[in-house]
Amino acid sequence: EAGVAQSPRYKIIEKRQSVAFWCNPISGHATLYWYQQILGQGPKLLIQFQNNGVVDDSQLPKDRFSAERLKGVDSTLKIQPAKLEDSAVYLCASSLNRVGNEQFFGPGTRLTVL
Amino acid sequence: AQSVTQLDSHVSVSEGTPVLLRCNYSSSYSPSLFWYVQHPNKGLQLLLKYTSAATLVKGINGFEAEFKKSETSFHLTKPSAHMSDAAEYFCVVSPMNRDDKIIFGKGTRLHILP
Question: Hey, are the CB atoms on B96 and A106 less than 8 Å from each other?
Fold first, then answer.
């Protein structure tokens, strides 16, 4: 069974530039999550999708971050414009469903904003 | 509302001695609880999960955790530490109803002394 795929693995940009991350979840998983993990901290949930609908985006900085999951499969997370404090690892995870299920994590995208 | 508290940010044990990583949770409902491990520059991997079946849960690599409802705890243990156990460990509470959120603890860094 293929795992959660993410790309790119690494990205370096300058502040005020834009960046996009891509995630392909495990086939058949209805729930998809994007997390931000700043160095030395635990993952923080940015947005959660159930199929192609948003379940929770309460911690997503909506003035600069956006995400979509068209057709309920793969997803993109965008930052525009980036700030220095956005430097972090962005993790994508998926689960069969949103209640009580194990999450499977991708390898993450390490973003450095200069 | 749910919450999770990892009581120690760092734990150091000698190789071959027992490991105890503490986690307390708060939930209005009987939650699903997970422990994930993150090795340096690696993705998050599920160690074990509790989903209202047996209260003593066995996971990978010799780890286990006991769900204690009276103490609202889900501590992670291992009888004998190995150098390869050095990593960051996260306790996670996952919703069992649609109004709650997934919450990661802040993590416990486990150091293994030779």
Answer: no
Q: Express each pLDDT in A26-70 by its tens digit.
A: 999 999 999 999 988 889 999 999 998 998 999 999 999 999 998
Is the confidence at residue A105, as pLDDT, over 70?
yes
Average pLDDT, chain B: 91
Say what the pLDDT of residue B97 is.
67
Terminal-residue alpha carbon distance, chain A: 37
List the single residue in B with minimal CA-CA distance to A107: B43
Q: Is B98 on the interface with A (CB under 8 A)?
A: yes
Residue with tokens 């300058």: A14
The answer to whether B32 faces chain A, any CB pair under 8 Å, is yes
Closest to A35 in 3D by CA, of A95, A109, A112:
A109
**8 Å CB contact of A99 and B98:** yes
> From CA B23, how far away is CA B36, in angstroms rounded?
12
Task: Give the span between the Cα atoms of B111 and B81, in whole angstroms.
Answer: 10
Tracing tokens 């700030």 back to the chain, one arrives at A83
Residue position matching structure tokens 């900085």: A61
For the CA atoms of A79, A82, A86, A89, the dihedral, rounded to the nearest 10 degrees, stands at 50
The reply to whether residue B43 touches residue A106, judged by beta carbons under 8 angstroms, is: yes
Residue B102 touches partner A, C-beta closer than 8 Å: yes
Q: How many CB atoms lie within 10 A of CB A102?
A: 16
